[in-house]
């Protein structure tokens, strides 16, 4: 596991008087994709030894700016400079990497090479021998307080360690600017804390850091400055100390309507009713976290959250119920029908809608349009008795769903592969809800989704339960995803550890339970779970 230099004192929050040019400066950057103006005259600078947070709603232009700043995309107008000198020509990857390093959401490390080989990969500037490569890698790791074996194969590393390799690669080239694009998205809580220490270490070492995140609390914790993009325009740039969360959100959403409360329930959840989903004694071996004798039930109209560290089996449970991963023991029953192990087709036929964790691999078809993806599962309902579909039928069917999730696209025909990450996630959710599922399994559904859209998305899931009687199993390590749940089950090391039955749920108590410690205080609502494989008819296991 990676280790760090000791946490350093927080850097100053006031902007220091700067005599030298900024480490990175962009001026008047314009970028178009067809009719979309992704960036409109953006001016931004990052000083050495400062961390600038970049925030904005989905589709605001953050990733586009990252591509421009990494030398991967040529702007249609404007300039980029490093330390006052013009940036190299776009496409000269080696020279850009000497200036700026980007840690993307999806690792760019080559899995079949060692750490040292990755650190020196593509370093065309000079010949580096194996021995020297390993020695230099060890030196860099030691200098920055990272502890990863230079000879380890990258395929064996955790997400956290892969990020360190990418940062070390930048430092080895002497880059003094690091771009971190949603770096905490796949990290456990402790790893996030260590990442923050590392970012502080970089900043204290004089590196300029650009930090992109949808988690505003992270920006307040580690950034000194913040910039807000809205519809491709820079609408705010200020020291973090001068702003509060409300001001930041207001700058991000502009005049956009605030999410309303979820639909009123016609009747309280009837936990004595026949469950729509029953899981008994589920055992599964999985690289994402095993399950060992998990039992739970979801009543009609109920939203049940499943949380824990992701390695505790949270995602595995969702995947197994959705038929996306096999199980070795136990049963899964959806509306009275047994769902066989690893059979996504049978789970779907039984009425399970699925919002997968990895939307790029499983969530949508990239070259097909927004409307086609959204309505893919209800094509039969949109065709007439001759199997023909009137033009515009798909777009009309998709429109209410995509509007409810505030999807940003250039129109219903835009290929989903061209949308921003958060908007792709919204298409995945819209597609799942389109075919009126009896059970919705959603794994980390708000990952990569902006703060305002997150409320819309969670409300859409709660509404489907409240208005159609579907059961929702919401599997997430993101505790703020659980606000609209009726009940929360906590997994620890593949077993059900605790159950919270009375919303609103206490965040601290949830954290305590995910660590495997018995919840205290409101114990009636947060009781440790007995080891049992038989759910009671009430939906929860007997206690
Ligand atoms: N290759 C492309 N072709 C067409 N449009 C694109 C392309 N890449 C981005 N866009 C559009 O540019 C706009 C900005 O997208 P960008 O990915 O930069 O947003 P973002 O702020 O990173 O969003 P998110 O938070 O969802 O990741 C969006 O409207 C998007 O659909």
Automatic annotation (TrEMBL):
**Which CDD domains does its entry note?**
ABC_Carb_Monos_I, ABC_Carb_Monos_II
Q: Does the keyword Aminoacyl-tRNA synthetase apply?
A: no
| Keyword terms | ATP-binding, Nucleotide-binding, Repeat, Transport
Q: What is the lineage of its organism?
A: Bacteria, Bacillati, Actinomycetota, Actinomycetes, Kitasatosporales
What sequence ranges are listed for the domain ABC transporter? Answer: 24-256, 276-518
Q: Can you tell which superkingdom this protein's organism belongs to?
A: Bacteria
**Composition-biased stretches (Pro residues):** 8-20
Q: Could you give a GO molecular-function term held by this entry?
A: ATP binding
Name-wise, this protein is Sugar ABC transporter ATP-binding protein
User: Region annotation Disordered: residue ranges?
Assistant: 1-27, 520-543
Q: Which Pfam families match?
A: ABC_tran
Cross-referenced PANTHER family: CARBOHYDRATE TRANSPORT ATP-BINDING PROTEIN MG119-RELATED, GALACTOFURANOSE TRANSPORTER ATP-BINDING PROTEIN YTFR
Q: Which organism is it from?
A: Streptacidiphilus cavernicola
**Record InterPro entries:** AAA+_ATPase, ABC_carbohydrate_import_ATPase, ABC_transporter-like_ATP-bd, ABC_transporter-like_CS, P-loop_NTPase
